[in-house]
Design goal:
Length: 550
C-alpha cells in the first residue's frame, strides 16, 4: 500500500472598502499612542454634537449577538480613539450617551494597520446626526490581505488509501503552529467552516478507509478474528493513552498536569473511533465478494454490510434523540447555539446545548475551558469540541470512509465504477448537507458546526471527501500525473510528526520570539518554516527507513 499525497490551492474572498487617504501626518501620533498588532486597526470618533455619544459594535460573524460597548465620547468637540479587530466585518452603532436610540449605523471590514476617522455632525430633523467615514492612513500589506482572504469556497483534496491522512497531517502541523495568524486557519467561532475545520474529518474518513483495506489484507494473510481483536484493542488503548498524557503534559508541572486535567482529546477520539470501526469490520466486514449474479449487485458494496448499517443508523438515531430531546436545565430543548451574547443573550449558560451538558455531567470540570466561541460570543461555560456526543458522529464519519474502502475493494481495477460510486456518494451527502443547513451558516435545521460535529457537518465533510478522493484517484491512479511528494513522507511517520511538532513546537529552530507582531509576515514565515522542517525530518527518516508506528 503505497502512500502518496496532494496539494490543492486555497482561495479566499475579501470585500475591500476604500476611502480617501487623509491625515497621514497623524501616523506618528497614532504609532506613539497605540501599539497595533496583527489584525488590528484604529478608529478615531470625532464628536461634534452638543451631547455625548456611546459607540457599540458587533461582528457580522456573531449570530444574533447583542451590541457590545466600544467607546464613549463626551459632548463635542471631543474625540476618542479605539483599537478594533480586522478579522471580520464589524457593524458599529452610535447612540446618544445613556439612551437607546440609534443616531447612525454602518458596517465595514477594516484593514490591518489602517487608521480611520468617523466624524459625527449635527443634521436636520428627523435624522439629527450624520456620520462621515474617512481613511487617515491606508492599511499596510494590502496585497497580502487581498491574496490571503479570498473565496472560502474551495479547500483541499484527498487521495486513495492514505492520501487524506498524509496531506491533512501537513496542514494540521501548519494550522497548529498558528497558520500565519490568519483567521481562516483558525477554527470557526461556532457555526461555519474554515480550513482548520476540515483537517480532523479527513483523518477520521481515511481511518475508516484504511481499516477496510488493512483488515482485508490481514485476512488474506490468514490472521484470525481474535488476533485482529487483540491488535486493534492494543492500538486503540495506546493511542488513547498517548492522547491523554499528551494533552495533559506541561514542562512546568511535569509529565501529567493534574491541575488542568482534561479527559477528552483529539487522539482519544481518534483511538475510540478506530476501535469501533475496527470491531465492525472484524465481525461484519470480512465478506467474500459473490461470484453469482444477483439483482442487488449494483449496490452489493452496501447490501452485504447490512449489520454495520444497522449499527450506524442506531448511533445516529441516538445522537439525534440526545441532541434534540434531552432536557437541559435552564436551556431550551434542542438548543445548538454557543450561548453567551448570542441569540440576543437569552441563553448565556447554554453553550453547546445537550452536548455541553452531557460532558459536564460526565467529566465535571475536566473538559476544555477555552472553546472557539469564548472570545466572540463572550461565553463563560467550558465546552469540549472532542466531547462524548460528537464522538458518535465521528464514528459515522469514519463509516463513510469505510464505504470508500469497500468500493475500492469491490471494484478493483474498474476505474469508471469506482469514480461513479464516489460521485453518487458525494451527491447524496451534498444534498443532505444542503437540506440540513438550508445552504446557510446559521439558519439551517442543523447548522454546519465542527464544535458539535453536527449531522450537517459530517455530511458536508463526507461530500468533500468523496469528491476530492475521486479527483485524486483520477489524477494519481488513473492518469499517474503526480506521486504526491513531498507530502508522502510525514504520512509515513504520522504519530511521530504529530507528537513531535506539538511537544517541540515552542522551541528553536521551530519557533523563536517574534519582533514584528504588527504584521502577519513574520508569523507566516515562522509557521511555514516549522512545517517545512517537519517535512524534511520525515523525509530523512524515510531515507533511513525509520518508521515509528503503534
Amino acid at each position: 500500500m503505497e502512500p502518496r499525497g496532494i496539494l490543492t490551492q486555497i482561495f479566499f474572498l475579501l470585500i475591500l472598502t476604500t476611502g480617501q487617504n487623509e491625515g497621514k501626518r497623524e501616523n506618528k501620533f497614532y504609532s506613539e499612542q497605540h501599539a497595533l498588532k496583527m489584525d488590528q486597526a484604529i478608529i478615531t470618533i470625532h464628536n461634534l454634537l452638543p451631547t455625548g455619544v456611546d459607540v457599540f459594535y458587533i461582528s457580522e460573524y456573531c449570530y444574533k449577538c447583542l451590541y457590545q460597548p466600544l467607546v464613549s465620547v463626551r459632548n463635542g468637540p471631543q474625540n476618542a480613539t479605539v483599537v478594533v479587530s480586522t478579522v471580520h466585518t464589524l457593524t458599529l452603532q452610535l447612540r446618544p450617551m445613556g439612551k437607546n436610540r440609534t443616531l447612525c449605523r454602518w458596517s465595514q471590514l477594516y484593514e490591518e494597520a489602517g487608521y480611520y476617522s468617523v466624524w459625527v455632525r449635527e443634521s436636520e430633523p428627523p435624522i439629527y446626526a450624520t456620520c462621515y467615514h474617512s481613511v487617515d492612513v491606508n492599511p499596510s500589506n494590502t496585497y497580502m490581505r487581498n491574496t490571503v482572504r479570498q473565496s472560502l469556497s474551495r479547500y483541499f483534496a484527498a487521495k486513495k488509501k492514505n492520501m487524506q491522512l498524509i496531506f491533512s497531517l501537513t496542514v494540521m502541523v501548519f494550522v497548529n503552529y498558528g497558520g500565519g495568524g490568519y483567521w481562516i486557519f483558525e477554527h470557526a467561532p461556532w457555526n461555519g467552516l474554515t480550513v482548520a475545520d476540515l483537517v480532523m474529518p479527513w483523518f477520521v474518513f481515511i481511518i475508516g478507509t484504511s481499516v477496510v483495506l488493512a483488515f482485508t489484507s490481514l485476512k488474506k494473510k490468514g490472521v484470525g478474528r481474535w488476533q485482529l481483536i487483540r491488535k486493534l484493542s492494543w492500538r486503540s488503548v495506546i493511542l488513547i493513552l498517548i492522547g491523554f498524557c499528551f494533552i495533559n503534559y506541561s514542562p512546568k508541572d511535569g509529565l501529567l498536569s493534574w491541575s488542568w486535567l482534561r479527559i477528552p482529546g483529539v487522539l482519544q477520539r481518534l483511538g475510540f473511533t478506530y476501535f469501533i470501526l475496527s470491531l465492525m469490520q472484524t465481525f461484519w466486514g470480512q465478506k467474500v465478494i459473490p461470484l453469482q449474479d444477483h439483482w442487488w449487485d449494483p449496490v452489493r458494496d452496501v447490501v452485504l454490510y447490512w449489520p454495520e448499517w444497522i449499527v450506524i443508523i442506531l448511533l445516529e438515531t441516538l445522537w439525534l434523540c440526545l441532541t434534540f430531546l434531552l432536557p437541559v436545565p435552564n436551556c431550551p430543548t434542542g438548543y445548538l447555539g454557543p450561548g453567551g451574547i448570542g441569540d440576543n443573550g437569552l441563553y448565556p449558560n447554554c453553550t453547546g446545548g445537550a452536548a455541553g451538558y452531557i460532558d459536564k455531567w460526565l467529566f465535571g470540570k475536566n473538559i476544555y475551558n477555552w472553546p472557539t466561541c469564548k472570545v466572540m460570543y463572550q461565553t463563560t461555560q467550558p465546552f469540549d469540541p472532542e466531547g462524548l456526543l460528537g464522538t458518535i458522529n465521528s464514528i459515522v464519519m469514519g463509516f463513510m470512509g469505510m464505504q470508500a474502502g469497500k468500493i475500492l475493494i469491490f471494484y478493483r481495477k474498474k476505474d469508471v465504477s469506482i469514480l461513479s460510486r464516489f460521485l453518487v456518494w458525494a451527491i447524496l451527502l451534498g444534498i443532505s448537507a444542503a437540506i440540513l443547513s438550508k445552504c446557510t451558516r446559521d439558519e439551517g435545521f442543523i447548522p454546519v458546526n465542527k464544535n458539535l460535529w453536527s449531522l450537517s457537518y459530517i455530511t458536508c465533510m463526507g461530500f468533500f471527501s468523496f469528491i476530492l478522493l475521486g479527483g485524486m484517484y483520477f489524477i494519481m491512479d488513473v492518469k499517474g500525473w503526480w506521486g504526491g511528494q513531498p507530502f508522502i513522507y510525514p504520512g509515513m511517520n504520522s504519530i511521530f510528526v504529530y507528537f513531535g511538532h506539538s511537544v517541540l513546537g515552542p522551541y528553536f529552530p521551530f519557533s523563536w520570539e517574534m519582533h514584528f507582531m504588527e504584521s502577519h509576515w513574520e508569523m507566516l514565515f515562522q509557521n511555514l518554516w516549522a512545517t517545512t522542517l517537519w517535512v524534511l525530518i520525515s523525509y530523512l527518516l524515510y531515507r533511513k527507513k525509520l518508521f515509528f508506528k503503534i
